[in-house]
Amino acid sequence: MRVTQLQLAAALDVSPALISSWESSKSSAVPPTHRLEAYARFFATRRSVAGEQYRLLRIDELTAEENADREELLDELLALVAPEPAGRQTPGLPFDGTMFRYPADEDITIVCSELPQERRSKLSYAAPDSPDYIEAYKYADLDALLELHGHVRAANPLSRVNIRVAPLMADEYATHLILLGGVDWNPVTRELMSRVDMPVRQSRRAEDETLGAFEVGPEDDATVLTPSARTLGEQAVLTEDVAQIYRSVSPFNIKRTVTLCNGTHQPGTLGMVRALTDSRFRDRNERFIRERFAGSDTFTLISRVSVINGVAITPDWSLPGDRLFEWSPGDDG
User: Fold this and answer.
1) I need a surface site. Which of 24, 223, 302, 320 has the fewest CB within 10 A?
2) What are the residue ranges spanned by the domains of the chain?
3) Cβ distance 261 to 88 under 8 Å?
4) How far is 212 from 227, CA to CA, in rounded Å?
């Protein structure tokens, strides 16, 4: 029987564009393990296409013969994605002691948002023709970068840690990636969020920079999470940011990981980094991640980040009030 991408997308409850990216020979996107399992389950039985609306049966609905076919198909798909037996495991997960520790001698690339040129033009030291030119002024999330870089270097003394802005060199996409900043100024973040399969979307800020937000859940029934501010005179002062951390196997190299720390504003990005680097909070936050997402190779968490007098306060994920949204593929049932 002929099964179209549209029909398969409906059965797997994903977008046709995502199916197309997985099946296109011109795309490097790779389905995550739980989606490969869904492929195998769908094609293991003709009952998936028996009705007018194609559907994905539950595992407990399969016969013994169908389940054996499912397991055989899944092994074939996993072998295509990663020929080595380790292909069933996520590199670097579960993490040991810190989420930013990687296997020795594997390169790590921190990809920063780039401050737009019109904003840098107001800083004399940011002009390349200035005798006091400071290249680091091009980074939009400089506080988060300084906090993160030292921590990653200390945790990975044998690895090369590079700092980059987009566009990356082709080989750099094959390293462990840590992305700082959201879809406004970080093109690699935009590319990642268009390729991965998660129920989180970030809207770009308007020109007045007040309308950034995250949408979580199904697109037709999404919850919108926005920062909070108070008015001080004629100035809107940020009092609480909304930020995301996302971790999975990299869609650009299945032997490496990608980690995203992403706020609607700079304090949110800094807060998500400090949640995993601040010595007073990182142990309990990492313990929460290990326990909440045990056995999963992919997860995301949306957190509130309090801001007091312009200072980002490290969130504590052991407190339910600091967590706004959590998801891993196992939550889909």
Assistant:
1) 320
2) 5-88, 108-332
3) no
4) 8
